[in-house]
Amino acid sequence: MKTAQFVNFTDQEFVGYWNGKGRKYPAGTGEYMPDYLARHFAKHLVNRELLRTKSDGTLVHKDGDKMTSPKFPEQVPLFVEIFNKAYIPDESDDLGTSEDGLDALIGAANKNRQDRITKVESAKIESVPPLSHPRQPKPQEDENFKREQSTANPSAAQIVTPPDWNESDEGQS
After folding, report:
1. Which of 163, 16, 1 is nearest to 86 (CA)?
2. pTM above 0.70, yes or no
């Protein structure tokens, strides 16, 4: 199984999920892992970066919301540029099999590579504003969304009034 290094080059923690389990990567850290997993985490990190907004609500990367998870990444240069900062392929020996546990594969991939782990600081994006996600109010918290409290008895019989027009009247004009 091929290996690659996933690098969280951002200045914020990244949580990558695989099979419903999360792995936390503090800002500026990375580790070797199976190639498919490094690609998966890198894609989600790139999507997060492309959707990142400034404090005024505008996107950090112009039209970044139109560049997430492209079918043909080679046609989206900005996606490829950011992806290559998060995904670094490893040209060394294959590692393990698909039957091995994920933690075992990641542990084995990192065991003897401390001398080859790249300097993450050189891959960091400089002068990028922090992520801002203002909390959106829930509809029940919105003062313009107040529901009228009904005084009707739900177990009592309901009266359905017929429409005030007659279908036979429409054709007699």
Report:
1. 16
2. no
Q: Per DSSP, which regions of 45-164 are E strands? A: 87-89
Residue 25: C-alpha distances to residues 7, 30, 51 (Å): 8, 7, 19
Who's near 83: CB < 8 A, 6+ residues apart? 42, 43, 46, 73
What percent of the residues of the chain are helix, what percent strand, and what percent coil, each to the nearest 5?
A: 30, 15, 55
- Exposure of 2 by Cβ count < 10 A (0-12 exposed, 13-18 middle, 19+ buried)? middle
Residues contacting residue 5 through CB under 8 Å, at least 6 positions apart: 30, 31, 32, 33, 38, 87, 88, 90, 117, 118
For the segment 18-67, what is each residue's pLDDT rounded down to a tens digit?
888 888 999 999 898 889 999 999 999 999 999 999 889 899 989 888 99
What SS3 state is found at 95? Answer: coil
| CA torsion through residues 120, 123, 125, 126, sign | positive
The two three-digit tokens of residue 42, written as one number: 């890198």
Are 49 and 27 in contact by the 8 Å Cβ rule? The answer is no
Q: What span, in angstroms and rounded, lies between the C-alpha atoms of 126 and 139?
A: 38
Q: Show the tokens assigned to 24.
A: 């936390």
